[in-house]
Amino acid sequence: QVQQEESGGGLVQVGGSLTLSCAASGSAFTYNTMGWYRQVPGKQRERVATITSGGTPNYADSVKGRFTISRDNAKKMVWLQMSSLKAEDTGVYYCYDYGVGYWGKGTLVTVSS
After folding, report:
1. DSSP letters of 44-103?
2. pLDDT digit string, tens, across residues 20-67
3. Cβ(109)–Cβ(18) under 8 Å?
4. Cα–Cα distance between 44 and 85 in angstroms, integer?
5. pLDDT for the residue numbered 2
6. N or C: which end of the chain has fewer CB within 10 A?
7. Which helix (H) or strand (E) holds 32?
8. Which of 73, 112, 91, 86 is nearest to 9 (CA)?
């Protein structure tokens, strides 16, 4: 049974930093592209960043230069380091396994001004 659990969300001020973690359990984790998405109530879930099994990242234009995605295949972990946070970064952040199409339950990030 594939499971993913996000953690690390919280309340942070504009300009602050936060690191999100995703603990995965899928046996094929090493081979799968992983991603972080976020969703604000009333809006569609949007892609924030992805990382291939080999570690190649890709970012949404809105977070380039501010967010960094990384992974450790041995630990089955994915991280999203967020800095220079803006109010519009507020939302529920989800970890996504592209190989199995599985979403975690999300972790809430609130950026206050």
Report:
1. --EEEEEE-TT--EEE-TTTTTTEEEEEETTTTEEEEEE-S--GGG-EEEEEEETTTTEE
2. 999 998 888 999 999 999 999 899 999 999 999 999 999 999 999 999
3. yes
4. 20
5. 64
6. N
7. none
8. 91
